[in-house]
Amino acid sequence: MSLTVLTYIVVGFTFAVYIAIAIATRASSTKDFYVADGGVNPIANGMATAADWMSAASFISMAGLIALSYNGYGGSVFLMGWTGGYVLLALLIAPYLRKYGKYTVPDFIGERYYSDTARVVAVICLVLCSVTYVIGQMKGVGVAFSRFLETDYETGLGIGMFIVFFYAVVGGMKGITYTQIAQYVVLITAYTIPAIFISLQLTGNPLPQLGLGSTLVGTDVYLLDKLDLILVDLGFQEYTTTLRGSTLNMLAFTASLMIGTAGLPHVIIRFFTVPSVAAARRSAGWALVFIAILYTTAPAIAAMARLNIIDTMWSSEAEALLIEDKPGWFENWEQTGLLKVEDLNGDGRIQYTADPDTNELTKLDNDILVLANPEIAQLPNWVIALVAAGGLAAALSTAAGLLLAISSAISHDLLKSTYMPSISDKAELRASRIAMAAAVLGAGYLGLNPPGFAAGTVALAFGLAASSLFPALLMGIFARGVNREGAVAGMLAGISVTLLYVFQHKGIMFIPGTSFLGDMSPNWFFGIEPNAFGVVGAIMNFIVALTVSRVTAPPPQEVEDLLDFLHEPAAAKSASGN
Amino acid sequence: MASAKSSKRRQAFAATVRSLMWKLLAVWLIVSFGFGILLVEPLNEYRLGGYKLGFWFAQQGSIFVFIALIFYFSAAMTRFEKRYSEQDDSEAEK
Question: Is there a contact between A287 and A53 (Cβ–Cβ < 8 Å)?
Fold first, then answer.
């Protein structure tokens, strides 16, 4: 059976499962639609959160980012940043918002800051960061389709939009939750199977986490030592020690990703679906367990695949690969444009080196590492088909969670709570489905235009969440003195500073040529790269909010009461929490 | 419930929670920003199998510690809340 047919079968089967689950668990009330009736088991919610959280970027791009763009150690910012945020979420945010017991993040901000303006600003921040994020997923779907199913990018995007549209709009949070559980199973299987095979081949240890610290088969040389040695031989920097930028940049980058994670609304609302405050805390732990399975495997895939690629390019006698000896996967991926070679010195061999003047492997895309991994390790075709289904599961599950966050912010926070308080439950449910449909179409459009936009979006979403929503939530829960004026000014200051910094270096809406300071590292503020700037925006937000609150009227008594309620110990006996 | 005594106990509860939170956040900070970034070079002098220790913390160890922190917090909070509500019951009986 050809690979394409096999991939169609595997992907088609998983899609049928997702749709069947959505129909079986479709939402019938607003509470079903927004928070799955608040009845999801904490472990099940942990698994759904993991799928919600791990996007196409985690699944397809992260290992390659670590191994190639960030040269090993520098990539640790993603690993620590995207997991460490869960500690903040579990300790500082999720239990309190679950105790509050409403449906959305702007709900809380509106009530805590006793202000429709604060709620509307929160909706704007939420929509900005969720829409930018969902565009990245749509692009992931389009790319996965075009590579594995041989459609063009636009068709792939269209099919992806249709599937997400169908099950998110019909199923609401309830359908999404159970679909995400299925998607987690698909994506984690697809990610770990090739990793286990590769780890066995290279080190004889089936656990990639241990294999990465083991010796290579038949030698007493450690895998990481070997990798350091040969990279330095080829003129690259050492894998295990090379910083990304500076120490300060790594600190800022990690901090931005951590607080961005803890401020992303589509992740926070997942904790509204469990039955109690205690369940919300436990559920965050399970979410991180399920996430860590992928996140501790990724660095192993990164190092092992990099080693495999170098082994392909250079024989043990330090002879470069003859062009006519290129393995099959090499040609497959050359056709996609993710891999390019050019015989610069005309010797019929491909020299892979660090020096751009002599390097003949002229393009080695980050995404290759995960996508071509099964072929490089000569695994059977069904593993390759599974990787395609896994990448799609990661993109679709995240897109669905984001769409739900967007639609509930619009139908619940803008219509029900702000502009149309008399709207009926049924009309609100219909409005949220219409809002979701509009969000799918909008995201699909932005997935195509402007062309450079999709690539920059995921990092931007984190910067926006870190600089606007996280500080507003944290101060809302712990700083009693912060008032309406402070919160609104803080959110606006944080998000403006971050947007300005990113756009001035990367171009307005990432359109090349519109950057007004140029994307040059000498212009970076203390050497902090734009993707790492969220933490600076967050600090601005804190400073502005605290200063403004000091010179304006203190919050009213209702806010005191609300905070007393949030910090009051949850009842240990009744499981229902509030 | 709203007596002076119960509000005192509620404050004591809040103080217990806060002190636990600070301790756990300190560990969170030390393993990631400390061991994983600031102290990575001195730690890399030591090894854990084939891993340099600082590199291991940055790419594996910190994540395991994060998981342990959340479950520890979750268990401790449940214990605190149980103790608090038991005190509540014993007060109601008096």
Answer: yes
Any domain includes A413: yes
Residue A148 belongs to some domain of the structure: yes
Shortest Cα distance, chain B CAs vs residue A308, angstroms: 18
> Domain range for residue A53?
3-97+117-309+377-470
User: What residues in B contact A213, CB-CB < 8 Å?
Assistant: 48-51, 56
In sequence order, the β-bridge partners of residue A321 are A350
Question: What are the angstrom distances between the C-alpha of A22 and each of A118, A174, A175, A477?
Answer: 34, 8, 4, 35
* Helices A116-148 and A3-24, axial angle in degrees (round to 10): 150
Is A223–B50 a contact, with Cβ atoms under 8 angstroms apart? yes
Where along chain B do its domains lie?
20-93
Distance from CA of B69 to the nearest CA of A (A): 7
Residue A228's Cα: distance from chain center in Å?
Answer: 29
Task: Indicate the residue type of A253.
Answer: F
Minimal-distance CA residue of chain B relative to A73: B55
Q: How many CA atoms lie within 13 A of A457 on its CB side?
A: 27
- Give ipTM to 2 decimals: 0.91
What does the pLDDT read at residue A302? 94
CB A250 within 8 A of CB A74: yes
Separation in Å, CA A492 to CA A107, A252, A406, B26: 18, 21, 19, 30
For residue A303, give every residue at least 6 positions away whose Cβ sits within 8 Å of its Cβ, in sequence order, or none: A67, A72, A212, A223, A224, A227, A239
Question: For residues A194 and A45, is the Cβ–Cβ distance under 8 A?
Answer: no
Q: Which of B38, B49, B74 sits opposite A213 (nearest CB)?
A: B49
For residue A14, the number of C-alpha atoms closer than 13 Å in the C-beta half-sphere is: 29
* Strand B51-52 to B47-48 pairing: antiparallel
DSSP letter, residue A70? S
Nearest CA among A438, A519, A413, A455 for reference residue A132: A455
| CATH number of the domain encompassing residue A180 | 1.20.1730.10
Is the residue at A438 inside a domain? yes
Rounded to whole angstroms, the Cα distance separating A191 from A390 reads 7
| Tally of domains within chain A | 1
Produce one character per residue of A135-145: b if its CB has 16 or more CB atoms within 10 Å, e if not: bbbbbbbbbbb
Task: Please report residues of B whose CB lies closer than 8 A to that of A223.
Answer: 50
Q: How far apart are CA A57 and CA A576, in angstroms?
A: 36
Handedness of CA A203, A50, A444, A530 (dihedral sign): negative
Give A388's contacts (C-beta < 8 A, 6+ positions apart). Answer: A7, A10, A11, A144, A147, A148, A149
Question: pLDDT of A524-562, one tens digit each?
Answer: 666 677 777 889 999 999 999 999 999 998 899 988 889
On chain B, the residues whose CB falls within 8 A of the CB of A90 are 70, 73-74
Reported as a single tens digit per residue, the pLDDT across A100-154 is 888 889 989 999 999 889 999 999 989 888 888 888 788 777 777 777 777 777 8
Two structure tokens written together for B86: 């038991």
Beta carbons within 8 Å of A297's beta carbon, 6+ residues apart:
A191, A192, A195, A208, A209
Chain B CB within 8 Å of residue A43 CB: no
